[in-house]
Amino acid sequence: MVVIRLARGGAKKRPFYSMVVTDSRNRRDGRFIERIGFYNPVAAASEQGLRVDTARLEYWQKNGAQMSPTVRRLVRQAAAPVAA
Questions:
Q1: Angle CA(47)–CA(49)–CA(53) in degrees, nearest 5?
Q2: Cα–Cα distance for residue pair 72/67, rounded to 1 Å
Q3: For residue 69, what is the domain's CATH number?
């Protein structure tokens, strides 16, 4: 099964996650098919904390890819309008 999940990168105490499309049997940080975004939980105010390529996300969902619960939460967060 194809899944959309987060792959961890970054340094110790400075996590950085790539949002990737991969086979569910692959390791968390292993081989992936495509990178469709990123999530930086420790982003400064001037940095972008979340980016999702919605066109590619929709493409993979139409082809049967399932989102992990964390990715589902982040996608909803990205779609919600930011209160300024």
A1: 115
A2: 6
A3: 3.30.1320.10
The answer to whether residue 84 sits within a structural domain is: no
What pLDDT, on the 0 to 100 scale, is given for residue 45? 84
In a domain, 65, yes or no: yes
pLDDT 10s per residue in the chain (84 long)?
999 999 999 999 999 999 999 999 989 888 999 999 999 999 888 888 899 999 999 999 999 999 999 999 999 988 876 655
Domain that holds residue 16: 2-79
Domains in the chain, number: 1
Q: Note the Cα 54 to chain centre separation in Å.
A: 11
